[in-house]
Write a structure and sequence with these properties.
α4 packs antiparallel against α5, α4 runs parallel beside α6 and α5 runs antiparallel to α6. The protein contains 16 helices and 13 strands. The protein folds into three domains: 128 residues, Orthogonal Bundle (N-utilizing Substance Protein B Homolog, Chain A), CATH 1.10.940.10; 47 residues, Alpha-Beta Plaits (2-Layer Sandwich); 201 residues, Rossmann fold. The protein is globular and about 75 Å long. By secondary structure, the protein is of the alpha/beta class. The protein is 43% helix and 15% strand. α12 links the parallel β5 and β6. The mean pLDDT is 96. Strands 5, 6, 7, 8, 9, 10, 11, 12 and 13 form a nine-stranded mixed β-sheet that branches. It has a four-stranded antiparallel β-sheet with strand order 2-3-1-4. Bound molecules: S-adenosylmethionine. It comes from hydrothermal vent metagenome. Its main location: cytoplasm. Pfam families: Methyltr_RsmB-F, NusB, RsmF-B_ferredox. It is an enzyme of class 2 (transferase).
């Protein structure tokens, strides 16, 4: 890693996420301006992701070598970031200590140089550290651990461990991907391949629309919907359009409305469809307010890939460990319930509704559907069964890390004639 600003910028970004609850992509956008070359941006991003992912365990690791936790939060980040480079990025001991001191000087923390020096020197000599509490052991704030434990008595450790891994790169391929990509096919899901990490956007097959980036878990949606000729289908929460594109790849002869609340995100659906050379009717509107956009022609199938806590994709969004609060979940669940109720009105009798989240919390998943069916008794579950998923009271759960997949929830419902 070279360049004068990598560590200072990375420390400022990680500080903003961990202590100011700034969303990581917003922090990148704000700090990583055009003056940074792409290689520097990538190095900063990699350092921030790794630091944030492992922050609580690494901070615990050096805290045992100081009398009391330093009040200055940026200094805490500088020390933890240096340890990240030592433990996870193969940087030599002397280099991380020297660079941490340089970073402190550049960030006007000269007063902390002696503290940083002695703390890091002691910490890099310790060979292993189990963590002085569960939050440190699993590098998650305790409330997340409590929620995973409450829902998944036997799998909570698997989930926490998966959340701290660097995520794999899964692709969806229209044609057999080139051997040079070293594609490993998924055990069950057709056309899903894991490939080594790389910038796929530079590859011809990506630019031509033959391959797309999509976790194998997310690729299940279009197969469950199984689009048939001439069907009227609504993709209710569509941006950036991963599942929209997949539905059309499976059958281009459908009438597909792709709805998205935010205009900027809707642009991503257009860009994705343009790359895939496919078309959908993209509508910018609030799915929970059909009076503003619904044509009156009910749908035969609806995909509701609802906004959620993202608890199943923490390995891709480690910042949410720090930026989310337990109360956020209540608001998210209310939004999901509103969306489900709106979708119920828009579906034909005998039509089907696929409810999806990238969460592993029952509150947003099986319990949500249980509550929905109580108030909408015309709906009944169409059972799904996959070897890599766990059956819940309602729907199925892919537990984060199963077959190296993201944590996703699916429930398929039929609207009966009552
Ligand atoms: C989980 S993401 C969807 C991912 C997408 N289906 C894909 O596969 O690429 C949820 C999306 O729903 C959008 N959204 C949130 N609330 C919405 C609403 N009330 N109406 C329509 N879209 C909404 C969010 O902006 C976000 O883009």
């Amino acid at each position: 890693m070279s360049g004068p600003n990598i560590r200072t910028t990375a420390a400022q970004i990680s500080y903003a996420v961990i202590y100011k609850k700034t969303n990581l992509s917003a922090a990148f956008k704000q700090r990583l301006t055009a003056k940074y070359p792409n290689t520097t941006k990538s190095a900063i991003k990699a350092l921030c992701f790794t630091t944030i992912r492992n922050y609580l365990s690494l901070e615990d690791r050096w805290l045992i070598h100081v009398n009391k936790r330093p009040k200055d939060k940026l200094v805490r980040v500088i020390i933890t970031q240096a340890l990240t480079e030592f433990i996870y990025m193969d940087k030599p001991k002397h280099a991380v200590v020297n660079e941490a001191i340089n970073t402190a000087k550049k960030l006007n923390k000269q007063w902390a140089c002696a503290l940083i020096n002695s703390t890091l020197r002691k910490t890099v000599e310790t060979t292993s550290h189990l963590g002085t509490n569960t939050a440190a052991q699993f590098s998650h704030p305790q409330w997340w651990i409590d929620k995973f434990t409450a829902d998944w008595t036997n799998q909570w450790q698997q989930i926490l461990i998966a959340n701290n891994q660097k995520p794999p790169l899964w692709i969806r391929a229209r044609k057999t991907p080139p051997a040079a990509l070293l594609p490993q096919p998924h055990s069950t899901i057709p056309n899903a391949y894991k490939i080594p990490a790389q910038d796929i956007t530079q590859i011809k097959e990506f630019q031509d629309g033959d391959i797309s980036v999509q976790d194998a878990s997310a690729q299940l949606a279009a197969f469950i919907i199984d689009p048939q000729d001439d069907e009227r289908i609504l993709d209710a929460c569509a941006a950036p359009g991963g599942k929209t594109g997949h539905l059309l790849e499976l059958n281009n002869n459908i009438q597909l409305d792709a709805l998205e609340l935010y205009p900027n995100r809707a642009k991503k659906i257009h860009a994705n469809l343009h790359r895939l050379k496919l078309n959908a009717n993209v509508i910018v509107a609030d799915a929970s307010q059909p009076q503003d956009w619904f044509s009156g022609k009910k749908y035969q199938k609806i995909l509701l890939d609802a906004p959620c806590s993202a608890a199943g994709i923490i390995r891709r969004q480690p910042d949410i460990k720090f930026t989310r609060e337990p109360d956020d979940l209540l608001k998210i669940c209310q939004t999901q319930q509103n969306l489900l109720s709106a979708m119920a009105q828009l579906l034909e009798v005998n039509g089907s509704l696929l409810y999806v989240t990238c969460s592993v919390f029952n509150q947003e998943n099986s319990n949500q559907i249980k509550n929905f069916i109580k108030t909408h008794p015309e709906f009944s579950e169409i059972k799904l069964n996959y070897p890599f998923a766990t059956n819940c009271e309602y729907g199925i759960q892919i537990i984060s890390g199963n077959e190296d997949m993201d944590g996703f929830y699916y429930c398929y419902l039929n609207k009966n004639d009552v």
